[in-house]
Amino acid sequence: MDLDVLYEIDVPRPWAGPHPHGQRAAEQRAYREAVEQIRLADRMGFRTVWAVEHHFREGRSHCPAPEVLLGHLAGLTERIRLGFGVTLTPFGFTPPQRIAEKVATVDVLSGGRVEWGTGRSTPMEQAAFGVDRERSREDWREALGIVAGMWREEYFEYASERFRFPRRMVTPKPVQDPHPPAWMAATSPGSAEVAGAAGLGLLSFSIMQPLEAMARQVAAYRNAARAPRPLTDVTTDRVSAYTLVHATAPGTAPGARVWDSVAWWYANLAQFTLEWELPHLDPGERERTFPLLTPILEGEIPVQQFSDGDMILIGDAETIVAKAKRYADLGVDQLICYVQWGYLEHREILRTIEILGKEVIPELARYEPRTAAP
């Protein structure tokens, strides 16, 4: 199992100063530190850095333009792959021709190191961009085929009820032939099966569920991926799952600020999930979808339960290796380490990346999962 890193560019309040300068200073610092951390991850042997596309996510995610960050990193890194995690694909967010252009441009600048993740986003972002939520999956599916066609054909034209494009040469074409590996973000029930049937890699972004729920998601994906009908010209049969990761020195217990950061992150995520992702669910269905959401919303964040259940990987290298092996046993090919979160200091994050690179990555590279993926 490989290790990746994911960046949302967390900028938690309180900011040091009133608007606008407090926010601006905090964001600029977060970006500077993220770039330094990712450059270290490149040297330490991480497989991929995933940069999100989120809009209006106050405090939690200040990264709306992953193509800019990844284009910048293309010239500052040598080996690490550059993942769009993800491009928001329904037509209202970005027209397919712009997705084709920006993803291919990063692939050119990086010498063919792009991973192309795709997704539909949440009602909060969809409403702000005028995206029709009821048709968002249909639009996502159609857009994937259009982007692949723009990379495949010298000149491309298209007409449907939802999208029209006159005959044009879309430039540049990607370095990877026929195009970068394609992935799908999966958070809602049934998404894993959709990704597997479509020949897409699975980006598992569900982080409020026990590992048993992830195991069912991976199994459903593998079953659907046995006979895919690919939406693009590349079939990607891999599973990536992300979680919070923080490494300490050998035998050293994490400090209070680490656990406070975990609590802040989960509380922020839970409130957002309830307000924007699950308002249409009745309490019973909500509990079945995210069984740990209710205690978080009630202010009883079960941080120790998350840690004991290996839902988060916090501790020294030996502890993290033992926890990470459970993900490999579930059939996860790439464990995405979310290392820049909450109130963690830059030096602590650099230490985490170094410990993971020197002590965890080699161990996981040698590890043979106990249970083969279904």
Instruction: Give me the secondary-structure category.
Output: alpha/beta
Helicity, as a percent range:
40-55%
Please indicate the percent range of residues in DSSP E strands (runs of 2 or more): 15-25%
- Radius of gyration of CA atoms, rounded to a whole number: 20 Å
N to C succession of SSEs: EHEHEHEHHEEEHEHEHHHHEHEH
Tell how many strands the DSSP assignment holds.
11
Q: Report the total helices.
A: 13
Q: Sheet bearing the most strands, described?
A: 8 strands, parallel, barrel
Name the poorly predicted regions: none
Tell me, briefly, the overall form: globular
* End-to-end C-alpha gap: 16 Å
What's the pLDDT, averaged over the residues?
93
Strands side by side in the biggest sheet: 1-2-3-4-7-8-9-11
In words, what does this structure look like?
With 374 residues, the protein is an alpha/beta fold. Helices cover 45% and strands 16% of the residues. The chain is built from 13 helices and 11 strands. The protein has helices spanning 21-44, 66-74, 96-109, 123-129, 136-152, 191-197, 211-224, 256-277, 283-289, 293-297, 303-308, 317-330, 346-366; strands spanning 2-7, 48-51, 81-88, 114-119, 156-159, 164-168, 182-186, 201-204, 239-247, 313-315, 334-338. The strands form 2 sheets. An 8-stranded parallel β-barrel has the order 1-2-3-4-7-8-9-11, surrounded by 7 helices. Helix 1 packs parallel to helix 13, helix 2 (66-74) packs parallel to helix 3 (96-109) and helix 6 runs parallel beside helix 7. The protein is globular, with a radius of gyration of 20 Å. The model has no long low-confidence stretch (mean pLDDT 93).
